[in-house]
From TrEMBL:
The keyword tRNA processing does not apply. This is Phenylacetate-CoA ligase. GO terms for molecular function: ligase activity. Gene3D superfamilies: N-terminal domain of ligase-like. Transmembrane segments: none annotated. Keywords: Ligase. InterPro entries: ANL_N_sf (IPR042099), CapK_Type1_Caps_Biosynth (IPR053158). SUPFAM superfamilies: Acetyl-CoA synthetase-like.
Length: 458
Protein backbone atom coordinates (compact mmCIF):
# COMPACT_ATOMS: atom_id res chain seq x y z
CA UNK A 1 0.00 0.00 0.00
CA UNK A 2 1.36 3.42 -0.91
CA UNK A 3 1.10 6.11 1.75
CA UNK A 4 -0.92 8.31 -0.59
CA UNK A 5 -3.56 5.62 -0.81
CA UNK A 6 -4.02 5.33 2.96
CA UNK A 7 -7.63 5.91 3.78
CA UNK A 8 -8.84 7.67 6.88
CA UNK A 9 -6.08 10.30 6.97
CA UNK A 10 -7.06 13.22 9.13
CA UNK A 11 -7.27 16.17 6.79
CA UNK A 12 -4.93 18.31 8.90
CA UNK A 13 -1.97 16.65 10.58
CA UNK A 14 0.25 18.36 13.17
CA UNK A 15 3.77 19.13 11.89
CA UNK A 16 5.47 16.17 13.60
CA UNK A 17 3.00 13.76 12.03
CA UNK A 18 3.32 15.41 8.62
CA UNK A 19 7.08 14.93 8.88
CA UNK A 20 6.66 11.22 9.62
CA UNK A 21 4.27 10.85 6.66
CA UNK A 22 6.73 12.63 4.41
CA UNK A 23 9.67 10.49 5.61
CA UNK A 24 7.60 7.34 5.11
CA UNK A 25 6.99 8.36 1.50
CA UNK A 26 10.73 8.84 1.08
CA UNK A 27 11.48 5.45 2.65
CA UNK A 28 8.99 3.80 0.28
CA UNK A 29 10.68 5.40 -2.72
CA UNK A 30 14.17 4.57 -1.41
CA UNK A 31 13.39 0.87 -0.82
CA UNK A 32 12.79 0.26 -4.54
CA UNK A 33 15.53 2.53 -5.95
CA UNK A 34 18.44 0.97 -7.89
CA UNK A 35 21.11 -0.16 -5.37
CA UNK A 36 23.66 2.23 -6.93
CA UNK A 37 21.35 5.15 -6.13
CA UNK A 38 20.86 3.86 -2.59
CA UNK A 39 24.63 3.65 -2.06
CA UNK A 40 25.22 7.10 -3.54
CA UNK A 41 22.54 8.56 -1.24
CA UNK A 42 24.15 6.83 1.74
CA UNK A 43 27.57 8.23 0.78
CA UNK A 44 26.17 11.77 0.82
CA UNK A 45 24.51 11.21 4.22
CA UNK A 46 27.65 9.60 5.58
CA UNK A 47 29.82 12.47 4.32
CA UNK A 48 27.53 14.90 6.07
CA UNK A 49 27.74 12.93 9.34
CA UNK A 50 31.54 12.60 9.10
CA UNK A 51 32.07 16.31 8.49
CA UNK A 52 29.69 17.14 11.36
CA UNK A 53 31.56 14.71 13.63
CA UNK A 54 34.95 16.19 12.65
CA UNK A 55 33.67 19.72 13.27
CA UNK A 56 32.04 19.20 16.68
CA UNK A 57 33.53 16.12 18.37
CA UNK A 58 37.18 16.05 19.57
CA UNK A 59 37.16 12.22 19.61
CA UNK A 60 35.94 11.98 16.03
CA UNK A 61 38.13 14.82 14.77
CA UNK A 62 41.20 12.86 15.90
CA UNK A 63 39.90 9.53 14.61
CA UNK A 64 38.94 10.93 11.20
CA UNK A 65 42.28 12.70 10.83
CA UNK A 66 44.19 9.54 11.83
CA UNK A 67 42.31 7.66 9.10
CA UNK A 68 43.58 10.18 6.53
CA UNK A 69 40.08 11.38 5.68
CA UNK A 70 39.54 15.02 4.71
CA UNK A 71 36.12 15.82 6.18
CA UNK A 72 35.60 18.65 3.65
CA UNK A 73 36.16 16.43 0.60
CA UNK A 74 33.35 14.40 -0.99
CA UNK A 75 32.86 11.13 0.86
CA UNK A 76 33.01 7.75 -0.87
CA UNK A 77 31.59 4.60 0.76
CA UNK A 78 35.00 2.91 0.43
CA UNK A 79 36.41 5.53 2.83
CA UNK A 80 34.27 4.18 5.65
CA UNK A 81 36.45 1.08 6.08
CA UNK A 82 39.47 3.30 6.81
CA UNK A 83 37.92 4.17 10.14
CA UNK A 84 38.59 1.68 12.95
CA UNK A 85 35.80 -0.34 14.55
CA UNK A 86 34.13 1.50 17.43
CA UNK A 87 33.78 -0.86 20.39
CA UNK A 88 31.45 -0.57 23.32
CA UNK A 89 34.51 0.04 25.50
CA UNK A 90 35.47 2.98 23.20
CA UNK A 91 32.02 4.50 23.73
CA UNK A 92 32.21 4.03 27.49
CA UNK A 93 35.66 5.54 27.77
CA UNK A 94 35.07 8.49 25.39
CA UNK A 95 31.42 9.42 25.84
CA UNK A 96 32.11 13.11 26.51
CA UNK A 97 34.55 13.51 23.63
CA UNK A 98 32.21 11.72 21.23
CA UNK A 99 29.45 14.29 21.72
CA UNK A 100 28.98 16.50 18.67
CA UNK A 101 26.54 19.14 19.88
CA UNK A 102 26.35 22.26 17.71
CA UNK A 103 25.89 25.51 19.63
CA UNK A 104 22.21 25.99 20.26
CA UNK A 105 21.45 22.30 20.74
CA UNK A 106 18.78 22.29 23.42
CA UNK A 107 18.21 19.65 26.08
CA UNK A 108 15.05 18.58 24.22
CA UNK A 109 17.13 17.79 21.13
CA UNK A 110 19.20 15.17 22.89
CA UNK A 111 17.80 11.93 24.20
CA UNK A 112 20.18 9.96 26.42
CA UNK A 113 19.68 6.22 26.42
CA UNK A 114 21.49 3.31 27.95
CA UNK A 115 21.61 -0.26 26.72
CA UNK A 116 20.41 -2.56 29.43
CA UNK A 117 21.51 -5.84 27.92
CA UNK A 118 21.53 -8.83 30.23
CA UNK A 119 25.21 -9.28 29.39
CA UNK A 120 28.15 -7.26 28.21
CA UNK A 121 28.87 -3.67 28.81
CA UNK A 122 26.21 -1.09 29.64
CA UNK A 123 26.68 1.74 27.16
CA UNK A 124 25.21 5.22 27.35
CA UNK A 125 24.65 7.09 24.11
CA UNK A 126 22.79 10.24 23.08
CA UNK A 127 20.30 10.17 20.24
CA UNK A 128 19.57 13.26 18.15
CA UNK A 129 15.86 13.50 18.73
CA UNK A 130 14.80 15.82 15.84
CA UNK A 131 16.04 13.16 13.38
CA UNK A 132 15.91 9.96 15.38
CA UNK A 133 12.31 10.14 16.49
CA UNK A 134 10.57 10.84 13.16
CA UNK A 135 12.82 8.31 11.38
CA UNK A 136 12.03 5.71 14.03
CA UNK A 137 8.32 6.31 13.65
CA UNK A 138 8.46 6.31 9.84
CA UNK A 139 10.36 3.00 9.90
CA UNK A 140 7.74 1.58 12.32
CA UNK A 141 5.07 2.49 9.76
CA UNK A 142 7.18 0.95 7.02
CA UNK A 143 7.19 -2.40 8.87
CA UNK A 144 3.43 -2.09 9.39
CA UNK A 145 2.88 -1.50 5.68
CA UNK A 146 5.32 -4.17 4.47
CA UNK A 147 3.42 -6.78 6.46
CA UNK A 148 -0.01 -5.38 5.57
CA UNK A 149 -1.34 -5.46 9.10
CA UNK A 150 -4.93 -4.35 9.57
CA UNK A 151 -4.90 -2.05 12.58
CA UNK A 152 -8.68 -2.34 13.00
CA UNK A 153 -8.14 -5.89 14.29
CA UNK A 154 -7.23 -6.92 17.85
CA UNK A 155 -3.60 -6.62 18.97
CA UNK A 156 -2.20 -8.47 21.99
CA UNK A 157 1.12 -7.29 23.47
CA UNK A 158 3.14 -9.59 25.71
CA UNK A 159 6.48 -7.99 26.62
CA UNK A 160 8.56 -6.97 29.64
CA UNK A 161 8.27 -3.63 31.38
CA UNK A 162 4.73 -2.71 30.47
CA UNK A 163 1.83 -2.08 32.73
CA UNK A 164 -1.04 -4.44 32.08
CA UNK A 165 -3.82 -2.71 30.18
CA UNK A 166 -7.21 -3.61 28.78
CA UNK A 167 -9.52 -1.66 26.54
CA UNK A 168 -6.61 0.20 25.02
CA UNK A 169 -5.88 0.77 21.29
CA UNK A 170 -3.08 0.56 18.75
CA UNK A 171 -0.77 3.47 19.49
CA UNK A 172 1.22 6.05 17.50
CA UNK A 173 2.47 6.29 14.85
CA UNK A 174 -0.08 3.84 13.40
CA UNK A 175 -3.01 5.56 15.11
CA UNK A 176 -2.03 8.89 13.47
CA UNK A 177 -2.70 7.54 10.03
CA UNK A 178 -5.11 4.64 10.36
CA UNK A 179 -8.17 3.54 12.32
CA UNK A 180 -6.79 2.14 15.60
CA UNK A 181 -8.50 -1.04 16.73
CA UNK A 182 -8.50 -2.63 20.19
CA UNK A 183 -5.37 -3.80 22.00
CA UNK A 184 -4.41 -5.30 25.36
CA UNK A 185 -1.07 -5.49 27.15
CA UNK A 186 0.35 -8.01 29.59
CA UNK A 187 3.81 -8.12 31.12
CA UNK A 188 5.86 -11.29 30.66
CA UNK A 189 7.21 -10.60 34.15
CA UNK A 190 3.85 -11.05 35.85
CA UNK A 191 1.62 -12.99 33.43
CA UNK A 192 2.41 -16.66 32.82
CA UNK A 193 2.23 -18.21 29.36
CA UNK A 194 -0.77 -20.21 30.62
CA UNK A 195 -2.61 -17.06 31.69
CA UNK A 196 -1.78 -15.23 28.46
CA UNK A 197 -3.07 -18.17 26.41
CA UNK A 198 -6.36 -18.01 28.33
CA UNK A 199 -6.69 -14.33 27.37
CA UNK A 200 -5.80 -15.14 23.75
CA UNK A 201 -8.50 -17.80 23.66
CA UNK A 202 -11.07 -15.33 24.98
CA UNK A 203 -10.13 -12.26 22.86
CA UNK A 204 -8.70 -13.93 19.76
CA UNK A 205 -6.10 -11.29 18.78
CA UNK A 206 -5.16 -11.19 15.09
CA UNK A 207 -1.66 -10.03 16.05
CA UNK A 208 0.53 -10.77 19.06
CA UNK A 209 3.64 -8.65 19.65
CA UNK A 210 6.14 -10.52 21.82
CA UNK A 211 9.63 -12.09 22.04
CA UNK A 212 10.53 -15.31 20.24
CA UNK A 213 11.21 -16.99 23.61
CA UNK A 214 7.73 -16.02 24.86
CA UNK A 215 6.21 -17.26 21.60
CA UNK A 216 7.91 -20.62 22.15
CA UNK A 217 6.59 -20.74 25.72
CA UNK A 218 3.03 -20.00 24.51
CA UNK A 219 3.28 -22.70 21.84
CA UNK A 220 4.65 -25.23 24.34
CA UNK A 221 1.74 -24.67 26.73
CA UNK A 222 -0.81 -24.84 23.89
CA UNK A 223 0.68 -28.16 22.73
CA UNK A 224 0.70 -29.47 26.29
CA UNK A 225 -2.98 -28.65 26.66
CA UNK A 226 -3.72 -30.31 23.35
CA UNK A 227 -6.50 -27.84 22.62
CA UNK A 228 -6.85 -26.12 19.26
CA UNK A 229 -5.96 -22.45 19.48
CA UNK A 230 -7.83 -19.70 17.64
CA UNK A 231 -5.68 -18.69 14.66
CA UNK A 232 -3.26 -15.75 14.93
CA UNK A 233 -2.37 -13.86 11.76
CA UNK A 234 1.11 -12.67 12.82
CA UNK A 235 3.45 -12.85 15.77
CA UNK A 236 5.32 -9.54 15.63
CA UNK A 237 8.70 -10.16 17.23
CA UNK A 238 11.88 -8.29 18.12
CA UNK A 239 14.80 -8.33 20.58
CA UNK A 240 15.85 -12.00 20.25
CA UNK A 241 16.84 -14.05 17.20
CA UNK A 242 14.11 -16.07 15.53
CA UNK A 243 14.99 -19.59 14.46
CA UNK A 244 13.39 -21.59 11.65
CA UNK A 245 12.06 -23.93 14.36
CA UNK A 246 10.27 -21.04 16.09
CA UNK A 247 8.68 -19.98 12.80
CA UNK A 248 7.54 -23.56 12.16
CA UNK A 249 6.12 -23.80 15.68
CA UNK A 250 4.11 -20.58 15.25
CA UNK A 251 2.70 -21.89 11.99
CA UNK A 252 1.85 -25.31 13.42
CA UNK A 253 0.27 -24.21 16.71
CA UNK A 254 -1.32 -20.88 15.77
CA UNK A 255 -1.33 -20.93 11.96
CA UNK A 256 0.68 -17.71 12.31
CA UNK A 257 3.47 -16.06 10.36
CA UNK A 258 6.33 -14.56 12.39
CA UNK A 259 7.23 -11.04 11.25
CA UNK A 260 10.47 -10.02 12.93
CA UNK A 261 12.26 -6.70 13.30
CA UNK A 262 15.95 -6.14 14.09
CA UNK A 263 16.81 -3.12 16.21
CA UNK A 264 19.15 -1.86 18.90
CA UNK A 265 18.71 0.70 21.64
CA UNK A 266 21.56 2.88 20.32
CA UNK A 267 20.46 3.20 16.68
CA UNK A 268 16.77 2.19 16.53
CA UNK A 269 15.49 0.05 13.66
CA UNK A 270 18.23 -1.70 11.66
CA UNK A 271 16.32 -4.16 9.46
CA UNK A 272 12.78 -5.45 8.98
CA UNK A 273 11.77 -8.86 7.80
CA UNK A 274 11.01 -9.05 4.07
CA UNK A 275 7.28 -8.91 3.27
CA UNK A 276 7.58 -12.20 1.36
CA UNK A 277 10.53 -14.18 2.77
CA UNK A 278 11.96 -14.96 6.21
CA UNK A 279 15.15 -12.94 5.65
CA UNK A 280 15.55 -9.21 6.40
CA UNK A 281 16.07 -5.99 4.47
CA UNK A 282 18.54 -3.49 5.95
CA UNK A 283 17.03 -0.02 6.47
CA UNK A 284 19.78 1.70 4.52
CA UNK A 285 18.17 5.12 4.74
CA UNK A 286 18.76 5.04 8.52
CA UNK A 287 21.86 2.96 8.91
CA UNK A 288 24.94 1.60 7.16
CA UNK A 289 25.18 -2.02 8.27
CA UNK A 290 28.41 -3.94 7.63
CA UNK A 291 29.16 -7.61 8.31
CA UNK A 292 32.90 -8.12 8.82
CA UNK A 293 35.31 -10.93 9.75
CA UNK A 294 37.84 -11.05 12.61
CA UNK A 295 40.18 -8.77 10.62
CA UNK A 296 37.36 -6.24 10.10
CA UNK A 297 37.22 -7.11 6.39
CA UNK A 298 33.80 -7.35 4.67
CA UNK A 299 32.26 -10.83 4.66
CA UNK A 300 30.81 -12.06 1.36
CA UNK A 301 27.14 -13.13 1.36
CA UNK A 302 26.71 -16.42 3.20
CA UNK A 303 29.63 -15.94 5.58
CA UNK A 304 28.86 -15.18 9.21
CA UNK A 305 30.53 -12.11 10.67
CA UNK A 306 30.35 -9.29 13.20
CA UNK A 307 27.74 -6.57 12.75
CA UNK A 308 28.98 -2.96 12.56
CA UNK A 309 26.47 -0.14 12.32
CA UNK A 310 26.75 3.51 11.41
CA UNK A 311 23.68 5.45 12.48
CA UNK A 312 23.12 8.08 9.79
CA UNK A 313 21.00 10.16 12.19
CA UNK A 314 23.52 10.13 15.07
CA UNK A 315 24.28 13.85 15.04
CA UNK A 316 24.27 14.22 18.85
CA UNK A 317 26.87 11.50 19.40
CA UNK A 318 28.07 9.96 16.14
CA UNK A 319 28.18 6.16 16.05
CA UNK A 320 30.36 5.19 13.09
CA UNK A 321 31.30 1.51 12.55
CA UNK A 322 29.95 0.68 16.00
CA UNK A 323 30.21 -3.02 16.92
CA UNK A 324 26.91 -4.24 18.30
CA UNK A 325 28.12 -7.63 19.52
CA UNK A 326 25.74 -9.45 17.15
CA UNK A 327 26.69 -11.89 14.43
CA UNK A 328 24.88 -11.94 11.10
CA UNK A 329 25.03 -13.22 7.54
CA UNK A 330 24.42 -11.11 4.44
CA UNK A 331 22.27 -12.57 1.68
CA UNK A 332 21.97 -12.10 -2.04
CA UNK A 333 19.22 -10.03 -3.60
CA UNK A 334 15.50 -10.52 -3.16
CA UNK A 335 12.64 -11.03 -5.61
CA UNK A 336 10.04 -9.12 -3.55
CA UNK A 337 10.61 -5.77 -5.29
CA UNK A 338 12.62 -4.27 -2.42
CA UNK A 339 16.21 -3.57 -3.45
CA UNK A 340 17.58 -2.88 0.06
CA UNK A 341 20.47 -5.16 1.12
CA UNK A 342 19.43 -8.59 2.38
CA UNK A 343 20.37 -9.88 5.80
CA UNK A 344 19.96 -13.65 5.54
CA UNK A 345 20.13 -14.29 9.28
CA UNK A 346 20.98 -12.78 12.64
CA UNK A 347 22.66 -15.05 15.15
CA UNK A 348 24.47 -14.97 18.43
CA UNK A 349 22.40 -12.31 20.10
CA UNK A 350 22.86 -11.65 23.77
CA UNK A 351 19.83 -13.54 24.97
CA UNK A 352 20.43 -17.10 23.95
CA UNK A 353 19.11 -20.33 25.29
CA UNK A 354 20.44 -23.79 25.90
CA UNK A 355 18.20 -26.65 24.82
CA UNK A 356 17.58 -29.28 27.52
CA UNK A 357 17.00 -32.96 26.59
CA UNK A 358 13.21 -32.53 26.88
CA UNK A 359 13.37 -29.70 24.33
CA UNK A 360 12.77 -26.86 26.81
CA UNK A 361 15.06 -23.88 26.58
CA UNK A 362 17.00 -22.32 29.41
CA UNK A 363 18.61 -18.92 29.30
CA UNK A 364 22.36 -18.83 28.86
CA UNK A 365 22.42 -15.29 30.26
CA UNK A 366 24.50 -15.94 33.35
CA UNK A 367 27.70 -14.21 34.16
CA UNK A 368 30.56 -16.40 35.31
CA UNK A 369 32.57 -13.41 36.53
CA UNK A 370 29.96 -12.94 39.23
CA UNK A 371 30.03 -16.61 40.18
CA UNK A 372 33.83 -16.56 40.39
CA UNK A 373 34.90 -12.99 41.20
CA UNK A 374 38.46 -14.10 42.03
CA UNK A 375 39.17 -15.41 38.53
CA UNK A 376 39.21 -12.00 36.78
CA UNK A 377 37.08 -13.32 33.90
CA UNK A 378 37.05 -10.78 31.04
CA UNK A 379 35.12 -12.64 28.37
CA UNK A 380 33.08 -15.82 28.18
CA UNK A 381 31.63 -17.83 25.36
CA UNK A 382 29.37 -20.81 25.81
CA UNK A 383 28.66 -23.27 23.07
CA UNK A 384 26.23 -26.11 22.89
CA UNK A 385 27.08 -28.74 20.29
CA UNK A 386 24.45 -30.80 18.54
CA UNK A 387 25.31 -33.79 20.78
CA UNK A 388 24.36 -31.60 23.76
CA UNK A 389 27.88 -31.09 25.15
CA UNK A 390 28.44 -27.64 26.59
CA UNK A 391 31.78 -25.93 26.09
CA UNK A 392 32.76 -22.87 28.11
CA UNK A 393 35.58 -20.70 26.76
CA UNK A 394 37.06 -18.14 29.12
CA UNK A 395 39.48 -15.27 28.72
CA UNK A 396 40.77 -14.12 32.09
CA UNK A 397 43.34 -11.80 33.60
CA UNK A 398 45.11 -14.69 35.37
CA UNK A 399 45.56 -18.47 34.89
CA UNK A 400 42.61 -20.63 35.96
CA UNK A 401 43.76 -23.93 37.50
CA UNK A 402 42.15 -27.39 37.26
CA UNK A 403 40.17 -26.87 40.46
CA UNK A 404 38.83 -23.56 39.14
CA UNK A 405 37.79 -25.08 35.81
CA UNK A 406 36.07 -27.93 37.67
CA UNK A 407 34.15 -25.42 39.81
CA UNK A 408 32.97 -23.56 36.68
CA UNK A 409 31.92 -26.85 35.06
CA UNK A 410 29.92 -27.80 38.18
CA UNK A 411 28.30 -24.35 38.30
CA UNK A 412 27.22 -24.36 34.64
CA UNK A 413 26.17 -28.02 34.81
CA UNK A 414 24.05 -27.32 37.88
CA UNK A 415 22.21 -24.49 36.13
CA UNK A 416 21.29 -26.95 33.37
CA UNK A 417 20.14 -29.77 35.71
CA UNK A 418 23.42 -31.62 35.04
CA UNK A 419 21.87 -32.77 31.78
CA UNK A 420 25.09 -32.42 29.75
CA UNK A 421 28.85 -32.81 30.12
CA UNK A 422 30.50 -29.38 30.50
CA UNK A 423 34.04 -28.68 29.27
CA UNK A 424 35.87 -25.54 30.36
CA UNK A 425 38.85 -24.06 28.51
CA UNK A 426 40.87 -20.92 29.09
CA UNK A 427 41.90 -19.11 25.89
CA UNK A 428 44.17 -16.16 25.17
CA UNK A 429 41.55 -14.83 22.76
CA UNK A 430 38.08 -15.96 21.80
CA UNK A 431 36.81 -16.00 18.23
CA UNK A 432 33.21 -15.02 17.56
CA UNK A 433 33.06 -16.13 13.96
CA UNK A 434 33.38 -19.52 12.24
CA UNK A 435 32.71 -22.85 13.97
CA UNK A 436 28.97 -22.77 13.48
CA UNK A 437 28.41 -26.35 14.60
CA UNK A 438 27.20 -25.26 18.00
CA UNK A 439 23.60 -24.38 18.59
CA UNK A 440 23.96 -21.66 21.16
CA UNK A 441 26.60 -19.02 21.35
CA UNK A 442 26.53 -16.69 24.26
CA UNK A 443 28.69 -13.67 24.75
CA UNK A 444 29.81 -11.68 27.74
CA UNK A 445 32.30 -9.15 26.43
CA UNK A 446 33.16 -7.71 29.78
CA UNK A 447 31.33 -8.72 32.89
CA UNK A 448 29.25 -6.31 34.86
CA UNK A 449 27.37 -6.53 38.11
CA UNK A 450 24.53 -4.11 37.73
CA UNK A 451 23.99 -1.35 35.28
CA UNK A 452 24.94 1.38 37.73
CA UNK A 453 28.15 -0.36 38.66
CA UNK A 454 29.35 -1.12 35.16
CA UNK A 455 31.91 1.66 35.19
CA UNK A 456 33.65 0.07 38.17
CA UNK A 457 34.91 -2.69 35.89
CA UNK A 458 36.76 -0.37 33.54
ZN1 LIG B 1 12.40 -9.04 0.02
Amino acid sequence: MQPGSMVGFPRFLPPDQLLVRDLLGQLRAFEAAPPAIQRATQAVQLGSLVSHAAAWSPFWRARIAAAGIDPRAPFGMEMLTRLPVLSRADVQANAAGMRAHVPGTGPGDVEPTSTSGSTGLAVRVERFRPLYKPLYEAASMLDHQWHQRDSRRMLGIYVRTVRDADGTRWGPPISWFEAAGPAFLRSTATTSAEAFLDIMRERQPAYVATYPSALRALAAVALERGATMPPVSQFITSTEPVTAATRALARRVFGARVTDRYSCEECGWLAHQCPVHDHYHVLSANVVLEVVDDDSQPCPPGQIGRVLVTALHSYAMPLIRYELGDLAVLGDGCDCGITLPVLAGIEGREREFFVLPDGTRRSAAFNLALAEPGMDILEQQMRQYSCGTIEVLLRAGRPIDDAGRARIARFVGGLLDNAFPVRVRQEASISWTGQRKHLALHRVERPYAEEGRAAAFL
